[in-house]
Every structure is written in structure tokens, then in C-alpha cells.
Write a structure and sequence with these properties.
- The structure is a single chain.
- The protein is mainly α.
- The protein folds into two domains: 1-78, no CATH class; 110-200, Alpha Horseshoe (Serine Threonine Protein Phosphatase 5, Tetratricopeptide repeat), CATH 1.25.40.
- It contains twelve helices and no strands.
- The protein has helices spanning 2-13, 18-25, 29-41, 45-57, 65-77, 81-93, 101-113, 117-129, 137-149, 153-165, 169-181, 185-199.
- The protein is elongated.
Length: 200
């Protein structure tokens, strides 16, 4: 569960409640839990994410995966980017929930619309493969480009190739040239292929 831990740990680092974060850092977990719970009741989605983490790992409270998912769901229902990403990945991979590509797409779309590069990348793959959504290579390319512009390495490495498949050679060349500058030898061959095609 490294994925979950890294995401929620990041959530805790950006907690809106300084007292709860301080209690967590001082290993006063019961106090931290109570403070986050108070904020969650007021609708604070960062606190809801933190409670999801606490319940899942049994920190400051008895372990309860049902409650963990409940708080994550509440945060996602409030359109919290991190919660939408987490739930989207859970449904995509069948972690803690039954695998459901349609729900995965719904939650990843929520996170992608709010600028999550990881959500954009995973949603792009879903559109590319037609998993839970209608296959759409052009949409996959646009999502990959958005993720690449945010610095997502895998998206950056593949966006030119997908634009090539979508027959958008202008965009393909733009990204493949960046890949070549970064030492990608295959991208150089693909650029040569585009140039040869355009000369015909």
C-alpha cells in the first residue's frame, strides 16, 4: 500500500489544521484524530482525507476500512482532488473496492479537471484503451499533454507517440523533438518517419 501511504502523507503535510498536524508530528495520534474529526464535521476535505488515513492504518483510532472509505468518499463527493484521485485509482486497480472502470473514470475525471497530472495520465490510458469509457485516442492525447505540461514523466515520454496515432503530426513533432532532446533514440526514428511521410 505504498501508493495510499504516500498520497495521504502528502495530504497531512498540507493540512489546514495546524494543531492537528502538530499533534500528528508529535505522535499524539488520539489528539490529532479528534482535531481532524472536528474539522471534518465542518466540511474540511483535508481533514476527511486525514481521517481516512487514520482509520485505514488504525492510528489514534481502531482500524476500520469501512470508515476509511466512508471519509474518502465524503471528500470525493465534495470534489476534493486528492480524494477523487485516490478513489479513482482504487476503482481502477480494484484496491479496497471491487474493480469498476466506470467509477474509476468518473473519479479520475474529477481529479483531472482539478489539475491532477496523475489523474490525467491514468484517465488518458483509459481513453486510449477504452476501459470504462468510449475509446478516444484524441482525448487520450489531450489528457497526456495536460499531464506532460505538469511535469508527469511517463506522460511526457508518450504524448508525442499518441499524437502520432491520432494523426496530429504537428503536435507529435513538437513533443517528439522534446523527447529527442532528452536522449530518446526511438523518438528520433519516429520524427524521421513523420518527415518521410510528409515529403511523400
Amino acid at each position: 500500500m505504498k501508493f495510499l501511504l504516500s498520497l495521504v502523507t502528502a495530504t497531512l503535510l498540507f493540512a489546514s489544521n495546524e494543531a492537528a498536524l502538530e499533534a500528528y508530528k508529535n505522535k499524539e495520534y488520539t489528539k490529532a484524530f479528534a482535531l481532524y474529526e472536528k474539522e471534518a464535521k465542518k466540511g474540511d476535505t483535508t481533514a476527511m482525507n486525514a481521517l481516512s488515513y487514520f482509520y485505514y492504518n488504525g492510528i489514534g483510532v481502531d482500524q476500520d476500512t469501512k470508515q476509511s472509505l466512508n471519509y474518502l468518499q465524503k471528500a470525493a463527493d465534495a470534489k476534493d482532488k486528492r480524494a477523487c484521485l485516490d478513489l479513482g485509482i482504487f476503482y481502477l486497480q480494484g484496491l479496497r473496492v471491487a474493480q469498476d472502470y466506470k467509477k474509476a473514470a468518473e473519479y479520475l475525471e474529477c481529479a483531472a479537471d482539478r489539475g491532477s497530472a496523475e489523474a490525467q495520465y491514468n484517465l488518458a490510458l483509459m481513453y486510449y484503451n477504452g476501459d470504462g469509457v468510449k475509446q478516444d485516442v484524441k482525448k487520450a492525447a489531450a489528457l497526456l499533454e495536460a499531464a506532460a505540461k505538469s511535469g508527469h514523466k511517463k506522460a511526457r515520454a508518450n504524448v508525442g507517440r499518441i499524437y502520432m496515432q491520432a494523426l496530429d503530426f504537428k503536435k507529435a513533432k513538437e513533443w517528439l523533438q522534446k523527447n529527442v532532446a532528452e536522449g530518446d533514440k526511438e523518438a528520433k526514428l519516429l520524427l524521421e518517419e513523420i518527415d518521410a511521410t510528409q515529403k511523400e
